[in-house]
Structures are given as structure tokens and as C-alpha cells.
Amino acid sequence: MAEVKDIVPITISRPVPLNAQFISFTDLPESDEHFAIRFPVPTSVAADEAPLVRVHSECMTGDVFGSARCDCGPQLTAAISRCGAFGGYVLYMRQEGRGIGLYNKMAAYLLQDSDLDTYAANERLNRGADERRYDSAVAMLEALELTDIRLITNNPMKIDAMESAGIKIIERIPTGRFDTAGNRAYLDAKKKIAGHLLP
Ligand SMILES: Nc1nc2c(ncn2[C@@H]2O[C@H](COP(=O)(O)OP(=O)(O)OP(=O)(O)O)[C@@H](O)[C@H]2O)c(=O)[nH]1
Ligand SMILES: [Zn+2]
């Protein structure tokens, strides 16, 4: 069974200074170094609400470098802002490229530039359209004793996977829609092909 390993206080500075705790785990179902960031609930916020949770899939290009090919960076920033304001958790899942890794995501981007959609490009590389599993996210939530949550997502597959593993999603909170100069086809494909609940 997964357990919390270390809890390290770290003040982060983006998008604004916030006190947080970075949390590592033992015995996750996957060997990746998934981690959680906990933001304390301010005293002005009712303590009896189900905790806010964002399960965020790593995107090196978007999260770290602000790539305009996707919406991951602004989604992460918005989730941190919300959790910073109301308390909550960001689970940072090392699932780069929907689980196929950075190099494969880069190859998939080139295929998208010669007009495959984001899911078909994965398949052209003989990979699954979306290879993510949510067992580790569920194990992390259980280790943190969070079984009834308010989940920030637009992705119905994420909701289904977590609910069928026993996590109760009391409320779904949309991530918002973040258009850039380069992510139109990506957002359209998420909505049309994967059924994302995007406005
Ligand atoms: N393979 C591949 N992965 C991508 C591409 N664009 C973004 N990603 C990855 O997709 C993951 C984010 O997943 P999305 O399907 O965009 O969104 P989501 O997290 O499932 O849904 P939300 O909870 O609503 O944000 C990150 O790991 C990104 O690195 C792409 O074109 N190809
Ligand atoms: Zn991204």
C-alpha cells in the first residue's frame, strides 16, 4: 500500500508567492516519481468542504516553458491559484505526453504538423492514443486520506477511472478554456475525439 514518505515545506513563487508542502510517496503502483503539492486551507475558508484536487499530467513544454501548442501551462497555473486561494492539492503526475514520454510527444508534434490529430499521431507511432493510468493518483489520494474530492478537470476519462477505483467526486470543477495562437486543433481534438467537457 502506498504511503506518504516526506513532507517538505516549500514556498513557491509562481504565479504568486504561496506556502506549500511537497509530498513524496512510497510503494506507488508505478515507479515514476509522482508527487503531491498541498496548499493549506486559509482560516477564512469553510473547513468542511471536500478538498479541491487537480490531477495534472506532466507537460515539460507547456508547464515549464509555456509552449503555445497546448493548454497545460495555464491549466496548471489556474489550479495552483485556486488551490492557493482555497486550500487543496495538485497531484503532479509524471505522465508526459499522455504517458508516451517527451521524445515521443515531440515526434507526435511533427506528425501533427503534417496533419494528423493529436490522438492519431500517437497511434501512428504505434502507441496508445492516451496511455495514462490513474492507479497511482488513486493510491496517492488514499495515502493522503482524500477519498471524497472536488476534482478540477475537463476530462471524462479521468473522472471515470478515479470513480471506478473508489474515489468519490463530489463536484467537477472545469479547468477553464485557454486558447493560444497554436492550440486550436489540439483543443478541438480533445473535445471531439476524447469528449473533454471544454466550453
Ligand atoms: N502525446 C501527446 N501528448 C500531448 C499532446 N499535447 C499535450 N500532451 C500531453 O497531454 C497531457 C495533458 O493531457 P490532456 O489530455 O491535454 O488533458 P487532461 O489532463 O487529460 O485533462 P484536464 O484534466 O481537463 O486538463 C500532458 O501530459 C501533455 O504533455 C500531444 O499533442 N500529444
Ligand atoms: Zn501541454
From TrEMBL:
- What cellular-component terms does GO give this entry? cytosol
Gene3D superfamilies, per the entry: GTP cyclohydrolase II
State the Gene Ontology BP annotations. riboflavin biosynthetic process
Q: Which UniProt keywords apply?
A: GTP-binding, Hydrolase, Metal-binding, Nucleotide-binding, Riboflavin biosynthesis, Zinc
Give the GTP cyclohydrolase II domain ranges.
20-174
Catalytic activities: GTP + 4 H2O = 2,5-diamino-6-hydroxy-4-(5-phosphoribosylamino)-pyrimidine + formate + 2 phosphate + 3 H(+)
- Coiled coil location: none
**The protein's annotated pathway:** Cofactor biosynthesis; riboflavin biosynthesis; 5-amino-6-(D-ribitylamino)uracil from GTP: step 1/4
Among SUPFAM superfamilies, the record links this protein to:
RibA-like (SSF142695)
Task: Name the domain of life this protein comes from.
Answer: Bacteria
Pfam families, per database record: GTP_cyclohydro2
This entry's Gene Ontology molecular function terms read: GTP binding; GTP cyclohydrolase II activity; metal ion binding
Enzyme Commission identifier(s): 3.5.4.25
CC cofactor: Zn(2+)
PANTHER family listed in its UniProt record: 3,4-DIHYDROXY-2-BUTANONE 4-PHOSPHATE SYNTHASE (PTHR21327:SF18), GTP CYCLOHYDROLASE II-RELATED (PTHR21327)
Record protein name field: GTP cyclohydrolase II
Which species expresses this protein natively? Stackebrandtia endophytica
Q: Give the classification, highest ranks.
A: Bacteria, Bacillati, Actinomycetota, Actinomycetes, Glycomycetales
